[in-house]
């Protein structure tokens, strides 16, 4: 089916065409949302909100153009941005509340899901130190595979802005990765040193629990 025909059917409210659109891009949208939020559950919500918003605003789709992937990823970027703001507000609220009593966590998850969570956490540990616009451009251009024009269309910014943001994001990521690798190298050397005290071992255990950047390279 040609792109213009898909657009025409989507604009007309063709549910079958929209279902095909969902089947084609749901995984891509979910992966993009997961990279921006660092949370699989949040990514599910963002994906659902994205397609719901796409259906509600289908009449705004241009009659002519390429694939609708950039349009969906643009919506997902906005939804993920809103999610992160909401998380920030909730964390600020919780920080003002009395600390609850600790309870045992008996929840179990599959090894595959845990590994995926760790990978996302490692990526997010670096991405969270980027400015939001740079992080979004990186996710769209590098991971989602959009070109500059498609990314610009998805974000509603000029192509030149996309280029400059991506360049800054890449430089910043290289710097952050170098810092983390140097830090890990120092920690490994310290761990091999003899005569470490009991408190130092406990401190090392806490450090090990921190996410590593290795999965994000």
Could you walk me through the main structural features you see in this protein, from its secondary elements to its overall organization?
It is a single chain. The protein starts with a helix and ends in a 9-residue tail after the last helix. It is built from nine helices and no strands. It is elongated and about 70 Å long. Mean pLDDT is about 75; it is low at about 85-95, about 100-110 and about 195-215. Helix 2 (about 15-35) packs antiparallel against helix 3 (about 40-55) and helix 2 (about 15-35) packs across helix 4. It is mainly α.
Strand content: under 5%
Q: From N to C, what is the helix and strand string?
A: HHHHHHHHH
Rg (C-alpha, Å)? 21 Å
Instruction: Please tell me what the overall shape is.
Output: elongated
Biggest pleated-sheet summary: none
According to DSSP, the number of beta strands is 0
Tally of separate helices: 9
What is the typical, i.e. mean, pLDDT? 75
Separation, N- and C-terminal Cα atoms: 37 Å
Q: In terms of structural class, how would the helical and strand content be classed?
A: mainly alpha
Enumerate the spans where pLDDT stays under 50 for 5 or more consecutive residues: 87-97, 99-112, 197-217
Fraction of helical residues? over 70%
Secondary structure topology:
Blueprint: H1 3-11, H2 15-37, H3 40-56, H4 69-95, H5 111-127, H6 132-143, H7 148-155, H8 159-192, H9 198-208
Which features does this protein show?
73% helix, mainly alpha, 9 helices, 217 residues, single chain
């Amino acid at each position: 089916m040609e792109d213009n025909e898909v657009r025409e059917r989507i604009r007309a409210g063709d549910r079958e065409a929209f279902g095909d659109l969902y089947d084609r891009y749901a995984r891509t949208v979910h992966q993009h949302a997961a990279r921006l939020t660092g949370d699989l559950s949040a990514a599910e919500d963002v994906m659902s909100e994205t397609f719901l918003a796409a259906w509600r605003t289908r009449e705004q789709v241009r009659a002519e153009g390429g694939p609708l992937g950039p349009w969906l990823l643009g919506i997902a970027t906005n939804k993920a941005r809103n999610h992160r703001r909401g998380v920030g507000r909730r964390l600020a609220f919780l920080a003002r509340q009395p600390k609850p009593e600790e309870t045992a966590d008996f929840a179990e998850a599959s090894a595959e899901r845990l590994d995926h969570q760790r990978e996302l956490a490692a990526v997010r540990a670096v991405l969270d130190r980027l400015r939001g616009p740079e992080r979004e451009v990186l996710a769209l251009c590098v991971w989602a595979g959009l070109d500059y024009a498609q990314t610009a269309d998805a974000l509603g910014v000029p192509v030149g802005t996309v280029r400059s943001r991506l360049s800054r994001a890449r430089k910043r990521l290289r710097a952050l990765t170098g810092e983390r690798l140097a830090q890990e190298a120092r920690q490994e050397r310290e761990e091999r040193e003899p005569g470490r005290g009991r408190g130092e071992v406990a401190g090392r255990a806490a450090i090990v629990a921190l996410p590593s950047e290795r999965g994000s390279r």
